Amino acid sequence: MTHYSISIRPFGIHAVLIEWPNEVNEAILENILQFQNHLKTSHLGEEEWEMIPAYNSLTLIYRKAPINFAEFEEQLKTWYAQLEETSLPQRFIWRLPVCYDLEFGIDLNSVSEKLEKDIAEIIKLHTSYTYTVYGIGFLPGFMYLGGLPSSLEVPRRAEPRLKVKKGSVGLAGKQTGIYPQESPGGWNIIGSCSVSMFDPKKKEPCFVSVGDKVQFYSITKAEYDLYKIEGEVGIYKLEKTKWDA
Amino acid sequence: MLKVLKSGLFTTIQDAGRFGYLNKGVPVAGFMDTASAHKVNQLLENAVDSAVMEITMTGPTLEFDSPTFICIGGAKHSVTLNNNPIGHFQVHKVSPGDIVSYGKLEKGFRSYLAVKNGFKTDKILGSRSLYAPVTPKSHLEDSETIPYDSCEVFFPKIVELKVDSVLDNKVLNVSKGPEYELLGDKQLETLFFQDFTIANENDRMAYQLVEHVEGHKVSMLTSATLPGTVQLTPSGKIMILMKDGQTTGGYPRIFQLSDNAISILAQKKFGDTISFKLT
Questions:
Q1: Of A93, A107, B71, B228, which is the most exposed, with the fewest CB atoms less than 10 Å away?
Q2: What domains are defined for chain A?
């Protein structure tokens, strides 16, 4: 079991921030999730503590009373030192259907020009990698995905759009992702995902968790329309496979 | 039921907030000025997290269809009950057909109206706080109805609260944020020895300030943010995240506001000034 050098800092009186080395690295994310799981199962009640993992950090929040930082820091250090290879909650690889028709992929032509690749090649590249969910934030259900090939790196649009449609799949720098609802945005839009990434009517409104993986696959407009309807009436079956590191 | 005859500028229903979904990107939401919201609930002997109406700047006109008791507080509006002025932080009885009407805003920005036992709108993900897209809408609209349980008899233990108002205070107590150490002497001097003006861009998500400080070139990995987190953008703009603020961010988090400082800031509007004090 690798133990990293971690830093523990107060974040107001109700939160503590634990940071791992400043890198985008799957082994670090794994270590963070193991520590989070260890805290949840052995030390910090899930009802009272909220935990936000993201890239190289884990933020612990306790609202009921101020945290005694000095004391808590020592406890965390001890707990981290005691951390052993533990099993994590089951993680999944989600296969998400994306329609890359020009109707949705409104920036496909400009991305094609910028990358000097034809559209078919862009779609092939985008669908042949597996992306890691390093964080969820910015908007409810928005995934920060790592693992985009450098051949798909394209700068953000110079002029952000005031409205990007819900479900839009975008590229920006080293990132790719899905807009979980309509919002302003500056990413290059290459398609639309028919699956809703955030549904407040469900007890678990966002099926993806930090540490999961995501793959995109290309669907036709007809399939997109069908999956949308199936999603609305609640009979669409998401494709997922269990994944263990 | 309470009928919203006129909804005002931005009138919303808020409780203590939505907990347990930060790891899915869902902001806490909830009372912006928690201090005032707690007091109106306290006077009615409600649970502290009971849902109240949060009224921003221009208030609503409301009609009650069953008896209850109400309490108003927070920002000072001239408020009438059937055209008779009513006081803040006092318990008032309302009867079927009574009309509460908000007039001129005299001081502050956000006012709270509580009913006995709280508003009974639908809970979504454990909370009644309106926040789109978790809830279909983020604020109330004209002619909407809001449910509450009627209450005929109530003898309040305290009928009036003399309050240490958050309205007059303009000093925001802050603690060091995770990236505080990135600040240089010049930035620190500006931050602690200057007053800042609330910019036009201010809402339940974030408050921006007119004055900037020296920028920076720090690039960091996205990490958690909280209500009250003060972020510094590369161009030197200061953004203070509030209750509907995003749950993660990529800008250095230089300060964290105290709980009471969030309440103080929630009562500030465009053009008001504040200052920071390290505690």
A1: A93
A2: 7-81 (3.30.1360.40), 91-243 (2.40.100.10)
